[in-house]
Model the fold of this input.
Amino acid sequence: MSNQTIVACTFDRHASQILDIFNDAILTSTALYDYQPRTMDTMRSWFAAKTAGHFPVIGIENDDDVLIGFGSYGAFRAFPAYKYTVEHSVYVHKDHRGHGVGRILMREIIAAAHSQGFHAVVGAIDAANSGSVALHQSLGFQHVGTMPQVGFKFGRWLDLAFYQLLLEGPKHPVDG
Done:
């Protein structure tokens, strides 16, 4: 296995590679409940939202500076009382799955959420994705619920499972 470097992803350097990883997941898996491939305009908006929310986009590059996976998080829901909760996502290039890249990214995401003072990290996972479920459980995430048949893709109904990791969070959380 080659050396890998953890990087802070930027639009200029990584948008096209992230787009390729996203679109592969859209077209070939239930990791994303999208139907249509995303565009570079979508990536501009995506990166702008991450920047505006002070949410990291963390990647792993190989020796050739090729992005082999990335992860991020964003607001869980658009209501103020959820301000200490984030929903994360991690995607690994199809040629690099099963080699620990997702685990490294998840640990980086958890560390970033902890350092930013978040209290809860939520993952919404297709319930049939046993690899992602096992990874989350191995990192201390707890299954907190499943919504049956809320998605429909590839001619079948999909169940969405929610996994949550509680962090220390802010020492003095406040309303408002």
Observations:
- The CA atoms of residues 57 and 113 lie 12 Å apart.
- Residues 11-28 form the longest helix (18 residues).
